[in-house]
Every structure is written in C-alpha cells, then in structure tokens.
Amino acid sequence: MKLEQILSLRYPLPEKSLDKLHRCMSEITLPKGFHILEINKVEKDIFFIKQGIVKAFTYVDGKEITFWIGKEGATIVSMKGYVNDEAGYETMELMEDSVLYVLKRKKLQELFLEDLHIANWGRRYAEMELLETEQRLISMLSAIASERYRQLVEMDPELLQRLPLGSIASYLGITQTSLSRIRSRMK
C-alpha cells in the first residue's frame, strides 16, 4: 500500500502537507518474527504498514494474549511510549516479512506545530483509533465467541489465511480448541 494511501485513510491532506509528512519518513524491510515493539521498552517511533501483518500481545498470568492485529494500512505505535515516554505493556510481532514506513515522534511533533493540516490529521487519526478500540472492546464484552468469530470472517476473512489459528483464537478471547469447534459448527 502506498504511503499516500495510508496517510489519507483517516483524513485527507493537502498535497503540500502530504509531501512534508512523506519526506520525514523512511522505508524499512523486516523479517517475519521481528519485534517492532517489546514489553517494558520505550518506543517513540510510529510505523505504518506498507506490506505485512502484525500482532500485538501481552502476557496475563504467563499466557500470551493477542489484543490487536494490523495489516496493510495500519499503524504500529506504543501509546505509552508516544504519549508518556514510558515503557510499553505490549509486544508487537511481525507475522510476515514486512515493509514499513517509519516516522520519528520528534519530527511529527514539529510538523504538528508548523502545519495545521498535519495537526488535524493527527487529531483525526487519534479519534478514529479510539473509536475502533471502543468498538472492539464492546464486541469482546458483549458478543459470544461464535459471534466474534463470525464478525471476523465477515469483516476481515483474509486474516484467517495469514495468521496461525492460535493467534486468531487469542485475539477472539478463546482457546484454540473452542475456535476449532466454532469453525466446524459454522461449516
């Protein structure tokens, strides 16, 4: 996915502002299994996924819990690192060989001060991320496991081809055995 497409997903920017953002980013290629962010480390940079898929997880009672999945167009950021300059509670692992765009927090904050369009883009981005997080939380709290799986199949069926079932089960808040049962019932 082209950088211009990624940046315009949340809020369209005038060409001049888009060009400013684009010039501040670099492109990197990283292998499957690479940890972009790690638990208890401060990460201030922001990454945009050009190609690939990532899962975010943490540990609860020694068990890995996947709480977010991102693919082309998504943004990888540790909010604790970005906002508070603190170590994050999550690890974000690339699930495929990936190509990412990198933006330094310091540079983005400078752009916020000098370009109102970029500042509005950042605000709109944060608003949309909050809405998506809220929707996911409501789904996790209110929908039964089979309904969460059905929603995933309807909204993003390619994840089933690109991720191991264990990661999908964890993301849905169920065991892999439960996921297998749900899948067999739905066939």
TrEMBL record:
Name of one Pfam family that matches: cNMP_binding
InterPro entries linked: cNMP-bd_dom (IPR000595), cNMP-bd_dom_sf (IPR018490), RmlC-like_jellyroll (IPR014710)
Domain of life: Bacteria
Residues in Cyclic nucleotide-binding domain copies: 29-114
Protein name as catalogued: Cyclic nucleotide-binding domain-containing protein
Lineage, uppermost ranks: Bacteria, Pseudomonadati, Bacteroidota, Bacteroidia, Bacteroidales
